[in-house]
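FORM 12-B: Structure-to-Sequence Request
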C-alpha cells in the first residue's frame, strides 16, 4: 500500500536546529527530507533567509562550515522551489515570516516550525502549523 508523502514547508529554524542538535525532532525531520520521505516546498526568499541566518555570528562554532554548505545545498536541491502567489499578511508580530505562510498556501502544504509566532496560530486558512514533535506524531 502506497501512502502519499506529506507536503510541507520546513521553516529555516528547523533546518538550523537539526544541525545544532543532531538527535532532536528537527534532525529527524531533516533526515526524512534528505531521504525523500517528505516533500518540502520552498521559495528563493526562504533559501535566501536560510543563507543569511546560518551565517550569523551566533552560529559560528556551533555549526561547521561544511555542514552549513551541505545544509544550504541540500535544502535548495532537494526542495521544490516555487514562486508563491499568495500574498497573505498573517504574522503580525514578525511580518518577515509571511514568506513561509505564502509558500505553504501556494503549495497546499503544512508548516513545520519552532517559531512561537506561528505555533500560536495552530493553522492559517486551512494550512496546519505544526511543531516538529507534532509533525512526527502525525506520521504515526
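FORM 12-B RESPONSE
SEQUENCE OUT:
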Amino acid at each position: 500500500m502506497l501512502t502519499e508523502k506529506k507536503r510541507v514547508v520546513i521553516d529555516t529554524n528547523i533546518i538550523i536546529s537539526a544541525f545544532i542538535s543532531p538527535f532532536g525532532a528537527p534532525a529527524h525531520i531533516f533526515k526524512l527530507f534528505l531521504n525523500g520521505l517528505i516533500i518540502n516546498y520552498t521559495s528563493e526568499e526562504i533559501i535566501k533567509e536560510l543563507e543569511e541566518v546560518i551565517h550569523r555570528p551566533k552560529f559560528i562554532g556551533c555549526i561547521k562550515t561544511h555542514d552549513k554548505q551541505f545544509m544550504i545545498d541540500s535544502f535548495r536541491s532537494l526542495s521544490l522551489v516555487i514562486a508563491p502567489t499568495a500574498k497573505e499578511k498573517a504574522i503580525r508580530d514578525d511580518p518577515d515570516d509571511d514568506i513561509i505562510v505564502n509558500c505553504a498556501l501556494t503549495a497546499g502544504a503544512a508548516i513545520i516550525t519552532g517559531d512561537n509566532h506561528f505555533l500560536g496560530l495552530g493553522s492559517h486558512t486551512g494550512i496546519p502549523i505544526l511543531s516538529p514533535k507534532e509533525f512526527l506524531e502525525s506520521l504515526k
